[in-house]
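Next comes the chain:
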Amino acid sequence: CGRLGQFSCGNSLCVPHWARCDGVNNCGDNSDEQQCDCSSLNQFSCSNGLCVPHWANCDGVNNCGDNSDEQNCACDSVKQFTCKNKLCIPYWLVCDSINNCGDNSDEEDCVCEKINQFGCKNKLCVPYWARCDGINNCGDNSDEENCGKLNAFVMI
């Protein structure tokens, strides 16, 4: 980069020098975030050498790219669920039928508490209107069991 105050990225782009080591991939190839002294910048040091802002550490989002900013976190017990692998995720992601933890611990022992959901035998929750619709919504077919009794009950 020919101008003063510019940083030369690994891909030949130029970015302002003040944008180097700011926790943002300004170059597009992350070269502006490599070999930074994170502690002097009051940033979190990722295992892969990247720096991310301290507020991004243990926020439930993989900001580093190697998940090191989400390891060994003390989860906010009011807002976050602690996975068995110590990852923190927001409570609203628990029992959503998606493995958000990576170890499936957020999908274990789920009980459908919502009045409009049916609890499958495999602990998944499906919309109650999907029960006895002829489609295996649960994956274990438990939403299609005992439908004759259900229909007889509904008709009375």
In short: Strands lie at 6-8, 14-16, 43-45, 51-53, 80-82, 88-90, 117-119, 125-127. DSSP finds one helix and eight strands in the chain. Residues 147-155 form the longest helix (9 residues).
